[in-house]
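Our consortium's second objective concerns turning raw sequence data into structural hypotheses that experimental partners can test. To show how far this objective has progressed, the report includes one record in full. It was chosen at random from the queue rather than selected for favorable results. The single chain below, 353 residues long, was entered without modification.
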Amino acid sequence: KLVDEILQGKSGRIIWGVFQILLMILGDIGNLITLIVLNRRWMRKCGINNLLQGLAVSDIIAPTIASIPLIIYYYASNKVTNEHVIVFVMPLATAATFASNWIVVTITAFRLFIVIKPLYSQVYCSSRNEKKALTIIFMLSLLSITPYYFDSYFMFSSHIQNIIKLMSAVLSLLGPWIICVILWLILIRVVGQEIGEKNSLKLTLHSEVIAQRIRSKSKITKMVLIICFCNIICQLPVLIRTILDLIDTGSCGRAKTFFFVYLLFTSNLLLIVNHSINFFIYSLTNAKFRYSIKMMCRRCCCLQNLYNPQQSMTIDNSNIKMYKMSPRATHSISTLSARSTVKFLALTRVRDF
């Protein structure tokens, strides 16, 4: 009852019914722009382009589906449908979160392999292997949520339900989070050795083209490090809340309820931030991404100016004037000039004679 009072109050309606839905919409817009930019021809040469596109797709699906129960809870007239929506829809959000976390792990692993073994990376970190990794991740994410639907139909016992929740938490949250932390620490150490101050003098020995390639690779590596770090920080409250749900004894007091509600709000907020922040990371760390956005904005402005009604009216008026002047006026002017030249030649001949 206390949780329902908090959710149905003014602060709960503002926080969950307005604020998080607006963040979800803004995040979806940013991820859609990211997908459009990553599909550009000059952006496809990036080493992890396919993985970044898969990450953008999962970042669109997860917060959108997770916000559907909030929209029904605050804006729908029939509250009974909210329970059915949670049963059938929330596992899809779990699958999208599963895919997003493991895609971040795959991006970090690929980038670590590219930095450590740059010669072998052209074979093992190709776009074909990226597509295979994405296919495996999405298939595993769909398989991981099948026990939830079996539970809704067959009504398993509480022991089996706890086992299903534990396996889901380990596969979708705890496992990728621990692997992400390990890969992030290793990649920071490798970056400090390979692209740090120790090898800064090597850039002066290379030609300008090779030095520019080394700098671009270091920028992409830093971008991957920032993505991995944001994923680690934003997933931490979700991981804490999941662990507390698994070890919950059932006793619930007022202080514990408030703590659970605020932890739920923090975890949901950081999840939406985690799924929405990649657009800002790309735009701050990737020069090609910023250039692509500028080109898209310029094309949109050019199309807007081209289809402006005032300019179209002026263009039509000028075309009408040119159409009136072009065929007949030029013909009449040419005939008048020819007649005047003939008359002038005749007069000169008369004077000569």
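The partners drew two points from this record. The chain has two domains: 2-286, 308-352. The chain is about 90% helix and 0% strand. Both points have been shared with the crystallography group to help prioritize constructs.
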